[in-house]
Automatic annotation (TrEMBL):
Physiological role: Component of the cytochrome c oxidase, the last enzyme in the mitochondrial electron transport chain which drives oxidative phosphorylation. The respiratory chain contains 3 multisubunit complexes succinate dehydrogenase (complex II, CII), ubiquinol-cytochrome c oxidoreductase (cytochrome b-c1 complex, complex III, CIII) and cytochrome c oxidase (complex IV, CIV), that cooperate to transfer electrons derived from NADH and succinate to molecular oxygen, creating an electrochemical gradient over the inner membrane that drives transmembrane transport and the ATP synthase.
Coiled-coil annotated spans: none
Localisation per UniProt entry: Mitochondrion inner membrane
Topological category with respect to the lipid bilayer: Peripheral membrane protein
CDD domains: Cyt_c_Oxidase_Va (cd00923)
GO molecular function, one term: metal ion binding
Species whose genome carries this gene: Oryzias sinensis
GO cellular component: mitochondrial inner membrane; respiratory chain complex IV
Similarity field: Belongs to the cytochrome c oxidase subunit 5A family.
Main localisation: mitochondrion
Entries under InterPro entries matching the protein: Cyt_c_oxidase_su5A/6, Cyt_c_oxidase_su5A/6_sf
Keywords recorded for this protein, A-Z: Acetylation, Heme, Iron, Membrane, Metal-binding, Mitochondrion, Mitochondrion inner membrane, Phosphoprotein, Transit peptide, Ubl conjugation
Name of this protein: Cytochrome c oxidase subunit 5A, mitochondrial
Subunit structure: Component of the cytochrome c oxidase (complex IV, CIV), a multisubunit enzyme composed of a catalytic core of 3 subunits and several supernumerary subunits. The complex exists as a monomer or a dimer and forms supercomplexes (SCs) in the inner mitochondrial membrane with ubiquinol-cytochrome c oxidoreductase (cytochrome b-c1 complex, complex III, CIII).
Length: 127
């Protein structure tokens, strides 16, 4: 019995190790994504991968991040991806009906400069 008690007494306790790394601020997060989408040699796969990762987070991207992503679409001459980004952001905003119009308002100069129509302007939001 003594042997069994000593084994139980000295058994390692399961514990979890949590990261003690630096927490990224909102500004650093946005800057990281703006830098990612601003790479001059970004290709279509990297653009789609980046947007898929970004949309997977529990947030709606800031206008400056979306601006950078839309400019990457223009550099790649990929209108379809630009429209998909706008559709994804609208979907990501979900029931918060004031977020998507705010983003479109903030992105309007970029959309006009790049010649990108919104899904609503194209009529594909009703399909």
């Amino acid at each position: 019995m003594f042997f069994l008690n000593s084994i139980i007494k000295w058994s390692p306790v399961a514990s979890r190790c949590y990261s003690h790394g630096k927490v990224e601020t909102d500004e650093e997060f946005d800057a990281r994504w703006v830098t990612y989408f601003s790479k001059p040699d970004i290709d279509g796969w990297e653009l789609r991968k980046g947007m898929n990762t970004l949309i997977g987070y529990d947030l709606v991207p800031e206008p400056k991040v979306l601006d950078s992503a839309l400019r990457a679409c223009r550099r790649l001459n990929d209108l379809a991806s630009a429209i998909r980004i706008l559709e994804a952001v609208k979907d990501k905003a979900g029931p918060h009906k004031d977020i998507y119009p705010y983003l479109i308002q903030e992105l309007q100069p970029t959309l006009a400069e790049l010649g990108i129509s919104t899904p609503e302007e194209l009529g594909i939001d009703k399909l």
